[in-house]
Structures are given as C-alpha cells and as structure tokens.
Design brief:
This protein is of the alpha+beta class. Helices cover about 25% and strands about 30% of the residues. Strand 2 and strand 3 form a beta hairpin.
Length: about 110
C-alpha cells in the first residue's frame, strides 16, 4: 500500500537539519509494524533506509504527529548526531534508543 510521501527540506540553515538536507519519507505499509522508505539527500549524495515502527511505539512516542512526520523527526534527531551514511539501512525505530538513550526524551523537540 503506497501512501503519500512526506518531504522535509531545510530552507534556512539553522533548523534542526543541516543546510541543503532533505528527508523524504514514504509510508509503504500501514499494518503492524508500519513500514517506511526514507531517502536522505544532500549535496554529497543520498542514502536510502527501510524503517519499521509498531503501532504501540507510534502511540507511545509520536505525540499525535502523523507517522511520516514522526519518522522525519526521528531522522532529524539522528542527523543531529551522525552522518547520513552512518544510519543503518534497515532498522526498527526502537533501535534508535539503543544507540542514543536520549531519543525518547528528546524526540518531542523535533518537528
């Protein structure tokens, strides 16, 4: 099931993303777990990622945001901490907290 893609562009350097960075999220499955294809682009190229997220994780962490918007926020969080090339190609959202224990506490600050 293909749902509309969401795209986030950093138009004004100083946002949570670096200048010229885009995060494109396409939800490819709405079951449990939900599935997403994510592309991160900048001047130096792009990376692609397959991400899953259970309905329970979504309910606990998303704070009412649409699933694609939450995944964008999760990637903004990751990009503030590591290069796009360091982000795993396939992972479940819960893995982020294993690498970055502040994820659940800080994700609400990302829009």
């Amino acid at each position: 099931m293909d749902l509309p893609a969401a795209e986030r562009l950093d138009g004004g350097c100083g946002d949570v993303l670096r200048c010229g960075m885009a995060i494109v999220v396409r939800q490819t499955g709405s079951g449990d777990p939900m599935e997403f294809e994510v592309e991160v682009r900048d001047r130096d190229g792009q990376t692609r990622h397959h991400v899953t997220m259970s309905q329970a994780t979504y309910a606990a962490l998303a704070g009412g945001r649409a699933p694609q918007v939450f995944i964008q926020a999760a990637f903004a969080f990751l990009l503030d901490r590591e290069a796009k090339e360091s982000i795993l190609a396939r992972f479940d959202v819960t893995v982020i907290g294993r690498y970055f224990p502040d994820f659940e506490r800080e994700i609400g600050r990302y829009q």
